[in-house]
Design a protein that fits this description.
The protein is built from twelve helices and 14 strands. By secondary structure, the protein is an alpha/beta fold. The chain has a single domain, classed as Alpha-Beta Barrel (TIM Barrel). The strands form three sheets. Strands 1, 2, 3, 6, 7, 8, 12, 13 and 14 form a nine-stranded mixed beta sheet that branches.
């Protein structure tokens, strides 16, 4: 296999549950310095580390994060030893090993809009502004971050489906999954990102309510002002490895973007990527892959 910079996705595989205090402690103790984790805001405005909009999938509690206080959420999630299972952003930063602090690359995936200034303020307080890449499925978040600090590297996650039929099939499947309760997203959370929507964002118009999040489907690489701010800050985009073909790789790289695939967990998935493709980072749920990249 080629040697890529693998990024531990949600600290998966380092404990029985993803993104818990135990998972982060074990990952950092094993030497992991490239890691991705998700941020949501509690009802009292605290950034906590969790992927879904509720605790149901991981901890069995159905309370929505955006509608619950930090205290109630941490009580519901419980503890492993002396570590909270549901961590605040500050608690994750507090687990970093000071001796190798300069080597960390932290991919912070912001799941809902509104806390951008606070997240950057916390990162600055811990001296980590040079160590973060802000990832989001929400163009709102990326535009807001760029207005606050134009030097922060940004990464836009999305579904790339160039064929109209494929977009319809994916959109329908995602909506059905949400309707059946098999997804953390609401029924209407999947739609085609249009240039009109993109232009509204660049003019600072509020298009999201607290706690709303979306997965966008694109028929081309990011365009307009969203494409511009991504290229200005490193050109990172994150798409599923199954959507990366020779043709799509050429389209993205030819438009000035650098693809970060998710999630490569097996040799077979790795071998499905275009043979001559180069990626700045690769997300993985496989701790063996993440640990292997410590060596280079």
């Amino acid at each position: 296999m080629k040697k890529f910079h693998y990024v531990s996705h949600r600290a998966r595989g380092f404990a029985s549950s993803e993104q818990t205090g135990e998972a982060f402690r074990n990952a950092f103790s094993a030497g992991i310095t490239k890691i991705e984790f998700d941020i949501r805001l509690t009802s009292d405005g605290v950034p906590v580390v969790h992927h879904d909009s509720s605790l149901k999938r991981v901890f069995g509690n159905t309370g929505k994060i955006a509608c619950s206080t930090l205290t109630s959420l941490q009580q519901a999630a419980g503890k492993s030893g002396n570590l909270n299972n549901l961590l605040t952003l500050e608690e994750v930063f507090g687990l970093l090993h000071e001796s190798v602090k300069a080597t960390y690359t932290l991919f912070i995936d912001i799941k809902d809009a509104g806390g951008e200034s606070l997240i950057l303020e916390i990162a600055g307080r811990y001296g980590l502004l040079d160590n973060i890449v802000v990832v989001s499925w929400l163009p709102e978040v990326l535009h807001a971050l760029h207005r606050i600090n134009p030097s922060i590297p940004l990464c836009f996650s999305h579904h790339y489906i160039p064929q109209a039929a494929g977009r319809i099939i994916l959109g329908t499947a995602l909506k059905l999954k949400a309707a059946m309760g098999l997804s953390p997203y609401k029924k209407r959370d999947f739609f085609l990102l249009t240039e009109k929507y993109n232009q509204n964002l660049s003019q600072s118009r509020k298009l999201l309510k607290p706690g709303e999040d979306y997965e966008h489907i694109l028929k081309t690489p990011p365009q307009g002002e969203l494409g511009n701010i991504l290229r200005k800050t490193g050109g990172f985009v994150c798409i599923h490895y199954s959507m990366i073909t020779v043709q799509s790789y050429k389209k993205y790289t030819g438009s000035g973007f650098k693809i970060i695939p998710y999630s490569i967990n097996t040799t077979e998935q790795f071998n499905a990527l275009p043979g001559d493709a180069l990626f700045p980072f690769v997300l993985t749920d496989n701790p063996a892959f993440a640990l292997e990249s410590i060596k280079y």
